[in-house]
Design brief:
Blueprint lengths: L1 H14 L1 H31 L1 H12 L3 H31 L18 H4 L1 H20 L5 E4 L2 E4 L1 H9 L2 H28 L8 H27 L5
Antiparallel strand pairs: 1-2
Helix pairs in contact: 1-2, 2-3, 2-4, 2-8, 2-9, 4-6, 6-8, 8-9
Length: 232
């Protein structure tokens, strides 16, 4: 009875508009945290290839824990995408005629180009994720030896890829898209899980904007530095 009741509650949560917004909010914040950690990890290559490879080796050495984290992240991503698209489709059905102009509506909706393009930027990021994994996680496996330990030379692969203009500027463009997605997404996530009120909403909106800009810049620094031979 308890399992059946819990299952019914979960299905009810998924089927309700509020429940779906809560799901996208929680998964969105989780993915934003991962993006921040991933960006910080990337920046270690600016320090040295040795530090970058050692970090990558440490992550790989987590073994089953790494698989568990990847499984959770995959689940978050799938739920976020599927539910987000569902919300967007329902919104289009409710208002089939688009607005003639796109501009910020201010409080409380925070409608903007960023908010209206969430589905589009999300699809772009999904396609990028698949390409990114194919290029790096499952890309050429170079090896190196650091302090007597053989490990993957991931820095060589990253530097090799970002010396190509298509990768360097394509990656840069997608990171701008990520920033646009995060600009509205962070604020919307806090709103969806009911943690905003009229007093703190402007502050969270401003923080979301700053966070989005810093994330985009943090990711863009690496490919451009490599392409223009600022690091090697």
């Amino acid at each position: 009875m308890t399992i059946s009741s819990d299952r019914s509650k979960l299905i009810g949560l998924y089927n309700s508009p509020i429940g779906r917004k809560i799901i996208t909010g929680i998964t969105g914040l989780g993915l934003s945290l991962f993006v921040l950690i991933h960006m910080v990890g990337n920046l270690t290559l600016l320090a040295s290839s040795k530090a970058y490879n050692q970090l990558a080796h440490f992550i790989d050495s987590l073994g089953i824990l790494l698989y568990a984290i990847e499984f959770i992240l995959l689940g978050f991503a799938l739920f976020h995408i599927v539910v987000g698209i569902s919300i967007r489709l329902n919104s289009l059905q409710a208002r089939p005629v688009g607005y003639s102009q796109i501009k910020s509506a201010g409080d409380p909706s925070k409608q903007s180009l960023s908010s209206r393009s969430m589905a589009i930027t999300g699809v772009v990021l999904l396609g990028f994720l698949a390409l990114h994994l194919a290029s790096f996680k499952f890309g050429t496996y170079y090896t190196t030896v650091i302090d007597g330990v053989e490990m993957r030379n991931l820095s060589r692969l990253v530097i090799e890829k970002f010396h190509h203009p298509v990768y360097a500027f394509g990656y840069t463009s997608v990171m701008v898209v990520l920033g646009v997605h995060l600009r509205h997404g962070i604020w919307s996530a806090w709103q969806s899980i009911g943690l905003l009120n009229s007093k703190i909403s402007p502050l969270v909106y401003a923080i979301a904007l700053v966070f989005a800009i810093l994330i985009a810049i943090g990711f863009i620094i690496l490919p451009l530095s490599i392409f223009f031979d600022l690091i090697s």
